[in-house]
Amino acid sequence: MHSKFYVMPKRKYKIAVIQLNLNDVAENNLKKCISWVKDAASKGAEVTLLPELYSSHYFCQSEDVDNFALAEPLYSTSFIAFSELAKELGVVIIVPFFEKRMAGIYHNSAYIIDTDGTEAGLYRKMHIPDDPHFYEKFYFTPGDLGFQAIKTQKGTVGTLICWDQWYPEAARITALKGAEVLFYPTAIGWHPKEKEQYGENQYGAWMNVMKGHAVANGVFVAAANRIGLEQYLEGTDGIQFWGASFIAGPQGEILAQASHDQEEILIAEVDLDLQENVRQNWPFFRDRRIDAFGDITKRAID
User: Fold this and answer.
1) In this structure, which of 25, 132, 188, 264 has its CB flanked by the most CB atoms within 10 Å?
2) What angle do CA 263, 267, 272 make, to 5 degrees?
3) Is 24 exposed, middle or buried (0-12, 13-18, 19+ CB in 10 A)?
4) 125: annotated active-site residue
5) Annotated catalytic, 211?
6) Closest among 75, 67, 12 to 249, alpha carbons compared
7) pLDDT of 202-232, one tens digit each?
8) Annotated active-site residue in 14, 33, 46, 52
9) pLDDT band (50, 70, 90) for residue 3
């Protein structure tokens, strides 16, 4: 339980998502992200989200033990740098990183760093994919901290990570715990050979499922994706990250949308009076039949 004093939250605050090409070494990616977070703050952002695994290229395209060297212990390089930055700017920063918990246990994690530089929360990715060139099960232990709504000096936020975005249960629980915004740091893209045939439907499904989370839960949703072709393995086509980061309102309306191929900052306002009005008029939480939902905890209903 946090002992620090929280001021009465504002009814409106500005959030930002930053869309970047991160196909570089950790030192350069850190410098780039610091610069972009400063830029977002200068534009009025009070809570800023970076893309998934910000500090390196997307290394999960292969199963290679050498990539574990990219991980960092808790409260080391990334936390120190962004803690100082959050305190300097007086903003909240959500920092997704590759966590080394101990020898043999690694997580795909995110710090939620408060305006005074302290840790408001830590999230560990709960759903871990294993698909061609997204071999995350090789690297990441599933999260064990559960779904959380994190109180910060700017607002109450929830962080989920990439593959989590396909699960309505994750969004629902995070929203029920009080999150006003669901932040999704993301690394998602096309296999270049599949793009022409499947690309439009894949991208559309990604947008639709998260807009659905916004509608079903009456929350704001913000996703920060990468851009660019990351092709570092010989004999492969790599992954073309599709960008298109966005911020949606509580009726699924798009408040800000990025391109597929440019580095960008998106900023939108979280309006808690609007959120309350939407939930009053579309009372999905009121009408949930929680007495009939027990089967959702089963793997299959045989």
Assistant:
1) 188
2) 150
3) middle
4) yes
5) no
6) 12
7) 999 999 999 999 999 999 999 999 999 999 9
8) 52
9) low
